[in-house]
Design goal:
Blueprint lengths: L1 H14 L13 E4 L4 E9 L2 E15 L19 E15 L10 E11 L6 E10 L2 E8 L2 E11 L3
Antiparallel strand pairs: 1-2, 1-8, 2-3, 3-4, 4-5, 5-6, 6-7, 7-8
Length: 159
């Protein structure tokens, strides 16, 4: 009896599962091929999709000041030089103009950015196009008539 119930439940759930028409945007982190390096994430919250774009622009060296104090027998307290990566981040909700298509067509959207680092005047509205071909995602983000980002992205699983 218990086995029959489990079997019927399993078959019922398989019968009503969603068909996957293509890879998922939200299961991957997308990394740009060119320079500067960019990471793109899509987060699917049941009523909306969030888009995260992080750009790693420059690396600077940070050296300790010339007047550092050293403590005897505690060299680990002496500051060491390190590299600091400059990154910019934009985060916001996207609204697709039409349903997303995986067959190489351009998918257009509006992106309302509500978080940014470094700080900018928010909210900020961008438009964009997204095309998926041969396991590559081509993303172009425009503000007004100026192209802000144009990149080719490859998927990287992050979990």
């Amino acid at each position: 009896m218990k086995f029959n119930f489990i079997f019927i439940t399993l078959m019922f759930s398989i019968g009503f599962s969603k068909s996957n028409k293509g890879p998922s945007l939200t299961n991957n982190k997308w990394i740009s091929e060119g320079s500067p390096k960019r990471e793109v994430w899509f987060q699917d919250w049941s009523g909306y999709i969030r888009l995260f774009v992080t750009t790693f622009e420059d690396t600077s060296s940070v050296n300790p000041g010339p007047y550092i104090t050293e403590t005897k027998n505690k060299p680990y307290l002496t500051p060491k030089p390190y590299k600091l990566v400059q990154k910019n981040q934009l985060i916001g909700n996207i609204k697709w103009d039409q349903d997303f298509s995986w067959n190489g067509e351009k998918n257009s959207f509006t992106w309302k950015v509500d978080r940014a680092n470094p700080k900018i005047k928010l909210p900020d509205i961008y438009t964009g196009t997204l095309t998926y071909e041969e396991n590559n995602l081509t993303l172009e983000i425009i503000k007004g008539f100026q192209t802000i980002y144009s990149m080719v992205l490859k998927p990287v699983s992050y979990y």
